[in-house]
Design a protein that fits this description.
The complex is a heterotrimer of chains A (about 130), B (about 325) and C (about 110). Chain A is built from four helices and five strands. Chain A is of the alpha+beta class and about 130 residues long.
Chain lengths: ~130, ~325, ~110
């Protein structure tokens, strides 16, 4: 397995590619059906955010192996306009998709750890980790 | 995780029993299972997963296409699960807000509390009921110990928290004026300046201010765009609208309010209200003045407080016990 | 309850035709449409109330802030074809004295 694999997000179709790669990697790590579906949903959200708000960016995957646990790290990076008010987008009920998308709070719920760094006019990097149980 | 595993066994048995017997009992237990799962914050995709695993165990030779179709279903459930969790969090937040508001409402009650005066010459009835938790109506009684009773009735545009905040400001300003001059026109003029300087352009307040002098039984009053009250003449058994011109508070910086005076005879009544009383709607129909006066007349044998309470009960019922606006009604009647 | 707002602009005059009810739900929309029109020096805003049969105090608030804005920016506002029930609200609150209002029934209530 590659140490890190990335998918560039330029068009909506790339979201599917990112999901596919992410699912393959998580299956290899040993994640079950439910967690695979959750990881795929997370990837969708992150990739769609890039596609909708930044235009282009990439989603990268990294298999993690600690002393006694395995997991996956997903990092979504773009050089879009950045997020002005992070606390606001992390607030439930704020999702601009009209409550239909999981939004970033949904991503946070699906994953074990969540980190976001955003600079206005420079871009956003969201990094999430899911551990295998 | 252990509880979920425990439930897997349980679920498998239930499913197996249902497939065999098509029994209502098993379905009832399935209902219990789903309620229990919700309490444990188990999302729908996990239940589907339990279903898939149970199927695999019951039918080891399950066709591959069924397995795939179940995985497909599981995938479609993920967003529902997230929406459900979000709903739970929002509900908790809402409860939190609700309790904060009820604390604020209690504070407001204490802050705006006014003591209904107990005077031998005049019988006073007063009631103010908010449509929501916080009251945007305000009424206040001030006695000066020399036989004068000041009565303020005000209504802030809108309802709820913003209206209540605004009302608190009025209350503080009124307190700071007390003891200076009690002419209604002067009080309204001063308040107007405070409101004009301190509130948003689209916010305004209506207020009626009256001063009852129990020494010579005169009632002096001014109005800042407030819903007209009524005067009841005992001798003629007639109502008359107390229609006084005056601009609402907060629109223009300098407004001078006109002041009027009336001699009050024995048995006469002064009825002050907010538009929550005249804007009562019954379905699409507005309740007109005639009806309010009719109800007041019907109960006029009662003490002032009794009349006020009965009028409220009447309109509460007309509105199916759901007030659409804050309701305030004050009745003063000269006894002796 | 709904409110539809139709604006036609013509040589320094904006005609705003309202249809429906102006209440706490529709007032924000009205405010968003009306206020920008009042911020132009010399501009005339005419609001037609022909088909407004109900307005509450929130709606009144919108017209008060519009009035303040016209004064601040040197524009003018006229309210025309106002029905009795709505006119009564402007009359009680003393706004008929400071606003340019033409009711369907002269003298109002």
């Amino acid at each position: 397995m590659d140490f890190q694999s990335c998918v560039n997000i330029k068009k909506e179709w790339d979201i599917v590619g990112a999901r596919q790669l992410g699912r393959d990697i998580s299956r290899k790590i040993g994640f079950g059906t439910v967690d695979q579906a959750r990881i795929a949903t997370t990837i969708s959200e992150l990739a769609r955010n890039i596609y909708l708000y930044a235009g282009t960016g990439k989603v990268c995957f990294e298999a993690l192996e600690d002393m006694n646990k395995k997991g996956i790290r997903i990092v979504a990076t773009d050089d879009g306009p950045g997020i002005q008010d992070i606390s606001q987008v992390m607030e439930d009920g704020f999702t601009t998709s009209g409550g239909l998308g999981a939004g970033l709070p949904g991503v946070k719920r699906l994953m074990d750890s969540f980190d976001i760094v955003s600079t206005e006019e420079e871009g956003t990097e969201i990094s999430v980790v899911k551990w295998l149980r | 995780m252990s509880t979920l595993k425990l439930d897997l066994e349980n679920y498998k048995e239930l499913l197996q029993e249902y497939i065999k017997t098509k029994d209502e009992q098993a379905l009832y237990q399935a209902e219990q299972f789903s309620k229990h799962s919700m309490q444990q914050n188990i999302s729908p995709e996990e239940i589907i997963n339990v279903h898939i695993q149970s199927l695999q165990e019951i039918y080891p030779d399950m066709p591959e296409y069924i397995q795939s179709s179940m995985n497909f279903l599981l995938e479609t459930m993920i967003s529902y699960g997230l929406a459900y969790q979000e709903f739970q969090t929002l509900r908790e937040k809402q409860l939190e807000l609700k309790s904060e508001i009820s604390v604020a409402a209690n504070m407001q009650k204490t802050l705006l509390s006014t003591v209904k005066p107990d005077l031998s010459d005049i019988d006073v009835g007063a009631l103010s009921v908010p449509a929501k938790q916080m009251n945007g109506d305000y009424h206040h009684f001030v006695e000066d110990g020399k036989g004068n009773l000041g009565i303020a009735v005000a209504d802030v545009i809108g309802k709820g928290v913003p209206a209540a905040l605004c009302m608190s400001m009025i209350k503080y300003s009124m307190d700071s004026f007390s003891g200076i001059r009690t002419d209604p026109s002067v009080i309204l003029g001063n308040l107007n300046r405070v409101v004009e300087r301190n509130v948003d352009a689209s916010m305004f307040i209506t207020m009626f201010y009256g001063l009852y002098n129990s020494n010579d039984h005169t009632f002096t009053y001014s109005s800042a765009g407030h819903e007209p009250g009524f005067y009841y003449y005992k001798d003629r058994d007639e109502f008359e609208e107390i229609d006084v011109p005056g601009l609402v508070l907060g629109v223009s910086p300098e407004v001078s309010y006109k002041q009027y005076e009336k001699r009050v005879e024995k048995g006469d009544m002064i009825i002050l209200l907010t538009d929550g009383v005249t804007e009562c709607r019954q379905g699409d129909r507005f309740i007109d003045q005639e009806e309010i006066l009719h109800v007041i007349k019907q109960y006029s044998h009662l003490p002032a407080q009794g009349i006020v309470d009965q009028v409220y009960k009447h309109f509460e019922r007309l509105q199916d016990f759901q007030l659409r606006d804050d309701f305030t009604l004050i009745i003063l009647r000269r006894n002796v | 309850m709904n409110l539809s707002i139709d604006v036609t602009n013509n040589e320094g005059v904006s005609n705003v035709v309202l249809t429906g009810e102006v209440d706490a739900f529709t007032a924000p929309k009205l405010k968003d449409t009306l206020l920008p029109l009042t911020k132009e020096q010399g501009h005339v805003v005419e609001v037609d109330f022909q088909d407004v049969n109900y307005m509450d105090s929130t709606g009144l608030g919108v017209f008060i802030s519009a009035l303040k804005s016209t004064k601040e920016h040197g524009a003018t506002m006229r309210l025309v074809h106002m029905q009795d029930r709505v006119y009564r609200l402007f009359k009680i609150t003393g706004l008929t004295e400071i606003m340019n209002i033409e009711s369907t029934v002269q003298g109002g209530m």
